[in-house]
């Protein structure tokens, strides 16, 4: 099957697979970034809460932020693997897949994480 | 353009794609190592400053994350050379064991991290 400008056949499939892997790895890094932020947010909140920074108060309702962010990061990484597998099978079968649903879910999770971050930042 | 010229062109693009994939793996491995350092440093810092939290838990988690990063880095190099040979032979196979390993390690450690943050902090 000749595809103009892409070289056709075997090479295209190979490159599509490799591109799919890179996409998975990119999502992994997003999840890891959320995990880093989860640690930072949680530890800084702990610092405030235990009175080391006396002027700033904290209601204690901020406690879940770190765990929440970490959970979202984990969900993101797990979800990205699902997306990867779906795409891999489609590439193997040579079927172009214009699926938007997996990416919508992933970006939705990311939006929730950003909202959590925003709230946690605003409350400090 | 003759057939052999076309073949050489295709292989070049696959090889370059393979190398880009290796670099993406490297960035991911570095992200894991970075997370490991952040977890262990913040744990120690908090303990020094106010005596709360568990230094042991954060240190163990940090070390595990760094090890995961090193494993990911090593696996990616293996994959790179394996893929390179397959590409040269015109027989590239999409194997998923490395990606599955990475996701399992990261998800497992992420869950441990979420629990650690929930319990301490």
Give your account of this protein's structure:
The complex is a heterodimer of chains A (124) and B (121). With 124 residues, chain A is an all-alpha fold. In chain A, 76% of the residues lie in helices and 0% in strands. Chain A contains 3 helices and no strands. The mean pLDDT of chain A is 85. The longest helix of chain A is centred in the N-terminal third of the chain and has 41 residues, at 9-49. The termini of chain A are far apart. With 121 residues, chain B is mainly alpha-helical. Chain B is 87% helix and 0% strand. The longest helix of chain B is centred in the first third of the chain and has 48 residues, at 3-50.
How does the major sheet of chain B shape up?
none
Distance between the termini of chain B: 65 Å
Ranges of chain A with pLDDT <50 over ≥5 residues? none
Task: Please compute the radius of gyration of chain B using only Cα atoms.
Answer: 20 Å
The gross shape of chain A turns out to be elongated
**Main beta sheet of chain A, described?**
none
**Range of strand content of chain A:** under 5%
Write the layout of secondary structure elements.
The complex is a heterodimer of chains A (124) and B (121).
Chain A (H helix, E strand, L loop, with lengths): L8 H41 L14 H30 L7 H23 L1
Chain B lengths: L2 H48 L4 H34 L8 H23 L2
């Amino acid at each position: 099957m000749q595809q103009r400008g892409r070289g056709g056949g075997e090479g295209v499939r190979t490159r599509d697979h490799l591109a799919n892997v890179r996409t998975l790895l990119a999502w992994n890094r997003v999840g890891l970034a959320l995990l880093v932020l989860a640690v930072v947010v949680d530890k800084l909140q702990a610092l405030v809460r235990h009175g080391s920074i006396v002027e700033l108060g904290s209601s204690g309702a901020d406690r879940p932020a770190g765990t929440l962010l970490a959970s979202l990061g984990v969900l993101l990484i797990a979800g990205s693997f699902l997306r990867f597998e779906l795409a891999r099978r489609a590439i193997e079968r040579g079927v172009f897949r214009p699926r938007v649903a997996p990416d919508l879910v992933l970006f939705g999770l990311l939006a929730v994480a950003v909202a959590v971050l925003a709230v946690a930042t605003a409350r400090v | 353009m003759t057939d052999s010229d076309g073949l050489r062109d295709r292989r070049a693009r696959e090889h370059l794609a393979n190398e880009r994939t290796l670099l993406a793996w490297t960035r991911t491995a570095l992200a894991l190592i970075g997370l490991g350092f952040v977890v262990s440093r913040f744990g120690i810092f908090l303990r020094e400053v106010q005596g709360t939290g568990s230094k042991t838990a954060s240190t163990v988690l940090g070390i595990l994350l760094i090890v995961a990063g090193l494993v990911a880095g090593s696996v990616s190099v293996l994959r790179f050379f394996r893929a390179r040979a397959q590409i040269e032979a015109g027989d590239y196979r999409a194997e998923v064991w490395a990606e599955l390993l990475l996701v399992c390690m990261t998800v497992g450690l992420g869950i441990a991290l979420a629990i650690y943050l929930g319990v301490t902090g």
